[in-house]
Structures are given as structure tokens and as C-alpha cells.
TrEMBL record:
This is Aminotransferase class III-fold pyridoxal phosphate-dependent enzyme. Pfam families: Aminotran_3. The lineage of its organism: Bacteria, Pseudomonadati, Pseudomonadota, Gammaproteobacteria, Oceanospirillales. InterPro entries: Aminotrans_3, PyrdxlP-dep_Trfase, PyrdxlP-dep_Trfase_major, PyrdxlP-dep_Trfase_small. Transmembrane segments: none annotated. PANTHER family: GLUTAMATE-1-SEMIALDEHYDE 2,1-AMINOMUTASE (PTHR43713), GLUTAMATE-1-SEMIALDEHYDE 2,1-AMINOMUTASE 1, CHLOROPLASTIC-RELATED (PTHR43713:SF3).
Length: 410
């Protein structure tokens, strides 16, 4: 039976009329090859189904939020219970406090917490708190790093003034000299260094942070009285329930967390230490939906399930199995893959593929065979994928066969 996306294409045609560019943001499949469905009908565990009925083993996990598996029973039950009591009310439920206490308990650096919705809320809050506390303006961030869509960090410059970035100085990730030069350039005005736990940007191999670089960032912030901000939005709860650099013994002053905290229910958070408490107390931040309680219920249940079900270990085991299986398959067909980043957040690029032609072709075949991958963005392993890797590798054999027919021996 041929692979056809008739219903999806009909929806896309309608979408062209009511969404600018037909769809927007990271969920737009316009930059992806033709076989990708734009609209998803349902999801369960590590799998999604498009509106044309095809099932895909989903290694994008909603671009991160799905950490336990879609529709996790414990999380869904906790949300249903809270919805029966009320969600967005005039004042939050006590679950908000319970969750903040848990975040403080789990974060070795954390004495307080703020709860919000998107990762961008959290990174913005961190910048505001750092500036409020230090009375300075300049922020250092790694070149090309994504910290959200807000003007100071968005990769796109369309609709953004140069002023929005006037207080930003960049450095090269994992390069201590470059970081020291940026600190020198900031002079007496250094408010914060914001950095992601690993370098996880599109189109290029990921970089695991070096211990030396993480320690250097910490030491420079200590020396200058500036804030070390860890942007953990993409990584949170995949490696630790505290901040990700906790596993290296390097503690941030402020940590922005997001994506996974509600296993898909909208929630992000900032945790901070006492040095930055008064700055945080003086700032004004809020949002109409920041206090809705179903997400707090989801988050408490997600945290519990991660511990009870050994989710962190399961993601690592499944990630290792996927990485090794992909390497074996590629070798068997005469292709070489550059696999980078933590195994829980896999990215593979084909060697000798400067224009990503092999990667694009392969992913297009993969999706036709029922595996949803991304050619240039890091992917995500959820805990339930431990049931899916063998099946996924089996399906990917067909994609490698097609790649070989198209590109010969690599
Ligand atoms: C490292 C990092 N920071 C911040 C953000 C922004 O998060 P959100 O899209 O939830 O606003 C993202 C989103 O992908 C991210 O990966």
C-alpha cells in the first residue's frame, strides 16, 4: 500500500488560509521533507499517529516535553483529579507550594522557586533577576545558542531591533579563553553568564560540556559577583531532578527549567539561591495562566513517576541501544554517522553530507517506514522508548536500504 498523506494535505491547505505561512514555529513541517505529517491525531507512550492513520515511533517527543511517554496514566489521573477541583482560579491550589518545595529539595543550588509556563518565561526571568540583583546590564551567552524566541536570543532578526541585543556579548561554547575575553569586555557591567548544559544547536554536532569550562564559568561569576544562569530548559529532568550540572558538581545561581516538567502539561520554572532572592523579590513577573493548578498536579506526578519508574536510567539505556543499533545499521550499509550529544538527546548527521542531502533523504524514508526523526535538530528519548528501540531499528533498515539505492556506498 502506498504512503499517502491525503487528509494531512487537505488540512494544510486549510491552514494556509488562517495561519501566516501555513504554520509557524518549530512545529512547522515546511522545512522538513515531504513525507512528514503536519497534523497529529493521537499519541501514546513513545508513538504518535498522523491524521491519515499512520503510526510513527516518535523520537521528537513533542520537541522535548514528552519524557515519561505520552498519556502517562499517573500524570493523566493527577490532572483529571485536579481538573475536577478547578484549574485556573483566583489564587492557586496548595499544589503550587508543594511543587516549589520539591524543586527546592531536589536542586542542590536552590533555595526558592518561581513557576511559569514556557522556557522563554524562565530564561527571561533569570536575566531580570540577575540584573535586579547586580544592578548591571550585560549578559554573556554562547554564540548561536537558543534560549527562546525573545528578541535578546531569537535566532531570527526579523521584527527585532538591534537595541534588543545591545547588552548581549557572545562567547564560544566550551572555549575558556573566549569566555574570559567576553568577561573582560563586559568590564564592570557583567550581570550574568547564561549557558546551556551541553551545546545542542541545529545543523552542527552537539558538544558535551567540559568540566573545565563549567568550572571556569562558575569561577568567573564568583570573581565578578555575577550570576551563573543554567538554561536547563531542554535538558531538565533527563539527567537529574535538580540542575543538570549538579551531576558535575557545578551549581548555578539561577536555573531555568522547562519542557519536561509536566510531561506535556504547560509548566516551566526558575530555581535560585539565596544570593539572588532579594533581586527576585523586587522584580514583577506574572502571567494569566502561570497559577493554573492542573499543570502543578501533572508536574508533581511526573516527578514521582520519574523516580518510581527509574525513568532517567531507562532513557539512558534506550538511548545507548538506539545509538549502537544505528551505528551498526549504518556500517552494514556502508555509511558513517556522526552521533553526538547525550544518548538521551540524540543527533546524528551523515558524514560527507555538507548539504544534509543524505540526512534529509534518510529521514524522509524513515518517516514513511514509521519512524519520526529529525535530520538536523537533536531528538529526545522518553522512558517508554525502551519498548520501541528494537522495532524502530527494524523499521529503519528499510530507510537505509533506500538510502543505499539512492546514494550508493556513502
Ligand atoms: C535551551 C532552551 N532554552 C529556552 C527555550 C525556550 O523554551 P519555550 O519554547 O518553552 O519558550 C528552549 C526551547 O526549545 C530551549 O531549548
Amino acid at each position: 500500500m502506498s504512503y499517502r498523506l491525503d487528509k494531512d494535505l487537505a488540512l494544510r491547505e486549510r491552514a494556509q488560509k488562517v495561519f501566516p505561512a501555513g504554520m509557524y514555529g518549530h512545529m512547522s513541517t515546511t522545512p522538513l521533507p515531504d513525507n512528514y505529517p503536519q497534523f497529529i491525531a493521537k499519541a501514546e507512550g513513545g508513538r504518535i499517529w498522523g491524521v491519515d492513520g499512520y503510526e510513527y515511533i516518535d523520537f521528537l517527543c513533542a520537541y522535548g516535553p514528552n519524557i515519561l511517554g505520552y498519556k502517562h496514566p499517573k500524570v493523566e489521573a493527577a490532572v483529571r483529579r485536579q481538573l475536577e477541583q478547578g484549574d485556573c482560579t483566583t489564587g492557586p491550589s496548595p499544589l503550587m507550594l508543594e511543587l516549589a518545595e520539591k524543586l527546592v529539595e531536589k536542586g542542590d543550588h536552590a533555595n526558592w522557586s518561581l513557576l511559569c509556563k514556557n522556557g522563554s518565561d524562565a530564561t527571561n526571568i533569570c536575566l531580570m533577576v540577575a540584573r535586579a540583583q547586580t544592578g548591571r546590564n550585560t549578559i554573556l551567552m554562547a554564540e548561536g545558542t537558543y534560549h527562546g524566541t525573545d528578541p535578546w536570543s531569537s535566532w531570527s532578526k526579523v521584527g527585532i531591533t538591534d537595541n534588543a541585543r545591545a547588552d548581549i556579548i557572545t562567547f564560544k561554547y566550551n572555549d575558556c579563553d573566549s569566555l574570559e575575553q567576553a568577561v573582560a569586555k563586559a568590564g564592570d557591567d557583567l550581570a550574568a553568564i547564561i549557558v546551556t548544559p551541553n551545546l545542542h544547536e541545529v545543523f552542527v554536532p552537539q558538544q558535551l560540556v567540559t568540566q573545565e569550562f563549567a568550572q571556569k564559568a562558575r569561577q568567573l561569576c564568583n570573581d565578578k559577583g555575577a550570576a551563573l544562569i543554567l538554561d536547563d530548559v531542554r535538558c531538565s529532568w533527563r539527567f537529574s531532578l535538580g540542575s543538570t550540572w549538579q551531576t558535575l558538581g557545578v551549581l548555578p545561581d539561577l536555573c531555568a527549567m522547562g519542557k519536561t516538567l509536566g510531561n506535556g502539561y504547560a509548566l516551566s520554572a526558575v530555581t535560585g539561591n539565596d544570593r539572588f532572592r532579594s533581586g527576585a523579590a523586587e522584580c514583577f513577573f506574572t502571567g494569566s495562566y502561570w497559577f493554573s493548578s492542573a499543570a502543578f498536579a501533572a508536574s508533581l506526578a511526573t516527578m514521582e513517576a520519574i523516580e518510581e519508574e527509574n525513568a532517567i536510567e531507562r532513557m539512558e539505556t534506550a538511548g545507548n541501544q538506539f545509538r549502537a543499533g544505528l551505528a551498526d545499521l549504518a556500517n552494514g550499509y556502508g555509511f558513517k554517522l556522526d552521533q553526538s550529544g547525550p544518548v538521551q538527546m540524540p543527533l546524528f548527521l551523515f558524514e560527507d553530507d555538507p548539504e544534509y542531502l543524505k540526512g534529509g533523504f534518510f529521514c524522509n524514508e524513515a518517516v514513511k517506514n514509521g519512524v519520526y526523526l529529525h535530520p538536523v535538530h537533536n531528538m529526545f528519548i522518553c522512558a517508554e522508548h525502551d519498548k520501541d528501540i528494537v522495532d524502530a531499528l527494524d523499521r529503519l533498515d528499510g530507510a537505509f536500504k533506500a538510502l543505499k539505492a539512492q546514494f550508493g556506498d556513502g
